[in-house]
Amino acid sequence: MTSSKPAECGGNTLGMWRHISTGHCARTATARTATAMSFGLDAAEDSLRAWLAECDRLNIDPRDPRRKTPAGHLQLPKFVKFHLLHPGSDCDEIFWQDPSTFTPRRGRNGYVDSSGIYPMNTQRLYTSDIPLPEIQFINALIDRKLAQLAQLDITDLSRHRYWRRVRLSAGLPLSVFADKIITPLWGWVRNLHAHAFHDYKGGALFGPKDTNAIDASVHLGKAGYAYIPEEGFSIAHILQKEGDVIGYHYDSGDNWWVDIKLEEIAPRDTSTGAVVVLDGAGGYPPDGESSGTFSWAIQLRKAAQSPAGKRNAVKVLFGATNYQDKNPPLDPLDYDFDLSDLEGMRKAIRDALDSKGSLHYASKKFVTPFAPMDEMNSDSSMLSRLGRTARNMKKGTAVSQTPVPGHGGMFLEEGVKLTRKDKPTNTACANCGTPHDLKACSRCGQRYYCGKDSQRAHWKESHKMICGKSAQK
After folding, report:
1. Structural contact between residues 435 and 169, judged by C-beta atoms closer than 8 angstroms
2. What own/partner pairs with CB < 8 Å and gap ≥ 24 does 445-452 have?
3. 225, 246 in Cβ contact below 8 A?
4. pLDDT digit string (tens) for 155-213?
5. Looking at residue 158, what is its pLDDT?
6. Nearest to 211 by CA among 359, 400, 365, 43
7. What's the sign of the alpha-carbon dihedral 73, 74, 77, 83?
8. What is the largest distance, in Å, between two alpha-carbon atoms of the chain?
9. What distance in Å separates the CA atoms of residue 441 and residue 432, rounded to the nearest whole number?
10. Between β-strands 439-440 and 448-449, what pairing exists: parallel, antiparallel or unpaired?
């Protein structure tokens, strides 16, 4: 890879796998329980008295910026500023370090994820005027990573039960990689959950800007509190050398982990940049049903140990969101969890490429009506669900509501693009998936192509049936 521009990089072969077959893997960091406290006026006065008493006992000026470390040493933080009422002794010793020289800890499988900081401890004492110590520290790490990126020149899986191998362009934007390649490759539901890429070299995170996915708002701390917006960055920014590995964290509530390894860099003059699914093993893991990498591994182990365990695992699988349109087997004991559907993966990616990008600021939500639909669609009700109303959606977009069969009026709600186009810098060829030399269809402007050959092939395959129509596809 010799070019400094991601859009000109050669093709790359990536291996994606999960450690399903190797058993449950837990982080080695010591767990810590934080007591959630709501500081009202009386509680604040009590905290102040306690801290002043501590300062008096130690003969410390209350305005002294030093704080007690978990080991009990009174020490001046090199970067973080603690709240006046916060003694600091319940925080990790990391927050006395300088983020510009901080060496991230290694966690799962020896990788650096979640900025190398875990466990994290939220202090409700802090406000917008004084950010959490975690946020202060991580924002400094983000600034350090952005400075490094600005200087960056981006010129055997058989032991894993679930894996995929795919060839694609290193210039593919991370947002497109997540939305139109990784998600369909694993059979998950697009725009349903949040995601984050973990740069294992230093622990930096990249994720969708302004996502309103429920798991992002409730469980973002599990992914690392804050991440660099993935828009504007490509695969080549975080995978540069053969053998490099990054992490993909999907659904921060259930926690699916995919490790992505750069196996081969093809010369630029021999690469088309097209997305090609080469091989793979294992079926589609369940999306939802409280199943993540580790809990699903437990289900599979139990399935191998007893008929009851296998029946339960099949029940969990076919109760998941991404299996709602699939019929469960007549006999669960005959089901093969390892059955791989390569053609199904290829079709899922083709369908995703032949569609517009997801609107992460209006992600999918399952909604159970608790009132008549006119009340459910009122501005206040929709605002509480989507974070915006139907009337203040961006131009060329709309709110889509799709009934969920067999669930008593439940519907799936999300923001979708109608006439609004993808940005040419943040999409891929609708036919082959390359991000290079894209031009919009001259008739409808709703799909991008890398050249006339790709456009002709896609026209014959499917585009002639929707070209010129305003309906979102």
Report:
1. yes
2. 445/421, 446/356, 446/419, 446/421, 446/473, 447/354, 448/422, 448/424, 450/273
3. no
4. 544 457 899 999 999 999 999 999 999 999 999 999 999 999 999 998 999 999 888 88
5. 46
6. 359
7. positive
8. 82
9. 15
10. antiparallel
**If we measure between CA atoms, which residue out of 234, 261, 262, 174 comes closest to residue 6?**
234
Residue partners of 358: CB distance under 8 A and separation at least 6: 179, 190, 191
Q: Record the pTM.
A: 0.78
What tokens does 407 get?
């669930």
Which amino acid is residue 134, in one-letter code? E
Beta strands in 182-227 (DSSP E): 195-198, 205-207
Measured CA to CA, the distance from residue 324 to residue 43 in angstroms comes to: 49
Residue with tokens 């390892």: 338
Task: Give the strands of the sheet with 245-250, arranged side by side.
Answer: 228-229, 205-207, 195-198, 245-250, 256-265, 11-18, 162-169, 276-281
Distance CA 390, CA 419 (A): 15
Closest by CA to 358, choosing from 195, 169, 167, 185, is 195
How far is the C-alpha of 33 from the C-alpha of 56, rounded, in Å?
A: 28
Picking from 135, 104, 131, the residue whose alpha carbon sits closest to that of residue 117 is: 104
Triad 375, 320, 433: Cα angle to 5°: 95
* Other CB atoms within 10 Å distance of the CB of residue 50: 12
> What is the Cα–Cα distance from 276 to 97, expressed in whole angstroms?
45
391, amino acid identity: R
Query: Could you say which DSSP state residue 329 is in?
Result: P
Distance CA 242, CA 265 (A): 7
Under 8 Å CB-to-CB from 120, ≥6 apart: which residues?
A: 92, 114, 134, 221, 225
- Reading the block at residue 345, the tokens are 């993966």
